[in-house]
């Protein structure tokens, strides 16, 4: 099988990971595009000793570490500003966050994470400990959950409460979610895509965001349907079935960007 066919199925999730690191679709996609350009230019340098998905992420991280991506197009006048933006992006996602997202959001093993980051397993273990400590120190938030499956809604509520957050509402329909959001003004929204009455979590979020700004994490069993590159996409996306650590990591990253200022 050709290298292109081997890595193609993994591109949607790499794009998800990239935007989780950068906090924005445009900048995340720029890094992914740069990684693909590097693979096309030097396919012989692709890390074949790894599985295709891990190798793809390793190439991505080579680009990420160099921050050699033109985020504002090819204009020479904007190159300095682009470099400054890239440095800020790197500062927003230190190694500890990268290790946490790779093992939780992307489900890589500690050994695969070690290979991707070019760090020893012991270093990765220490990075994960640092990331978990940071989670404990994180500012607590008021969270709205939009989910029509009662068991999942209860599980998400328990996860957020155990992490020290306050669940200010749980809604199963778009209309109910919009009403609760307007009343409670949550700090973060966890939203399923398909809701109980046939309404859409995406539509609910659009209505909420038309009233005030709030970070949103979408939850879906079919992330590839949203990560097509053909339209604006969610910055933060959790895949069902999820793990508790996956949810905590996504919430941490979303709140982190909210506190530091989104890069959109």
Describe this structure in words.
- This protein is an alpha/beta fold.
- The protein has helices at residues 3-7, 11-22, 25-41, 52-66, 79-92, 95-103, 110-117, 121-137, 150-162, 174-184, 201-209, 244-260; strands at residues 142-146, 166-171, 188-192, 216-220, 236-239.
- The protein is globular and about 55 Å long.
- The N and C termini lie far apart (38 Å).
At a glance:
With 264 residues, the protein is α/β, with parallel strands linked by helices. It has helices spanning 3-7, 11-22, 25-41, 52-66, 79-92, 95-103, 110-117, 121-137, 150-162, 174-184, 201-209, 244-260; strands spanning 142-146, 166-171, 188-192, 216-220, 236-239. It contains twelve helices and five strands.
Which spans have pLDDT < 50 for at least 5 consecutive residues? 70-86, 260-264
Residue-averaged pLDDT, rounded? 84
**Strand residue percentage:** 5-15%
Largest sheet: 5 strands, parallel
Number of helices: 12
Q: What's the total count of β strands?
A: 5
Radius of gyration: 19 Å
Output the helix-strand order: HHHHHHHHEHEHEHEEH
Strand order of the largest sheet: 2-1-3-4-5
Which secondary-structure class do the elements indicate? Answer: alpha/beta
Q: What's the overall geometry?
A: globular
Helix content: 55-70%
* Distance, first to last CA: 38 Å
Characteristic key phrases:
disordered C terminus; alpha/beta; 5 strands; 12 helices
Could you outline the blueprint of secondary structure elements for this entry?
Layout: H1 3-7, H2 11-22, H3 25-41, H4 52-66, H5 79-92, H6 95-103, H7 110-117, H8 121-137, E1 142-146, H9 150-162, E2 166-171, H10 174-184, E3 188-192, H11 201-209, E4 216-220, E5 236-239, H12 244-260
Parallel strand pairs: 1-2, 1-3, 3-4, 4-5
């Amino acid at each position: 099988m050709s290298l292109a066919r081997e890595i193609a199925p993994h591109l949607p999730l790499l794009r998800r990971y990239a935007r989780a690191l950068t906090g924005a679709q445009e900048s995340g996609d720029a890094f992914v595009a740069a990684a693909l350009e590097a693979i096309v230019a030097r396919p012989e340098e692709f890390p074949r000793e790894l599985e295709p998905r891990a190798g793809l992420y390793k190439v991505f991280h080579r680009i990420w570490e160099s921050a050699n991506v033109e985020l504002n197009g090819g204009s020479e006048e904007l190159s300095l500003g682009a470099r400054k933006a890239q440095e800020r992006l790197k500062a927003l996602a230190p190694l500890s966050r990268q290790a946490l997202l790779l093992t939780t959001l992307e489900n890589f093993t500690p050994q695969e994470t070690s290979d991707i980051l070019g760090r020893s397993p012991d270093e990765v273990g220490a990075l994960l400990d640092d990331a978990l400590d940071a989670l404990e120190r994180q500012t607590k938030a008021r969270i709205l959950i939009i989910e029509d499956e009662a068991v999942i809604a209860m599980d998400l509520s328990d996860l957020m409460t155990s992490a020290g957050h306050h669940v200010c509402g749980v809604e199963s329909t778009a209309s109910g979610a919009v009403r609760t959001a307007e009343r409670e003004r949550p700090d973060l929204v966890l939203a399923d895509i398909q809701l109980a009455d046939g309404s859409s979590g995406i539509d609910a979020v659009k209505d909420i965001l038309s009233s005030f700004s709030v970070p949103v994490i979408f939850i879906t069993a079919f992330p590839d349907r949203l990560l097509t590159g053909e339209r604006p996409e969610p910055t933060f996306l959790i895949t069902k079935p999820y793990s508790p650590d996956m949810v905590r990591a996504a919430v941490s990253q979303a709140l982190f960007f909210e506190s530091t200022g989104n890069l959109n």
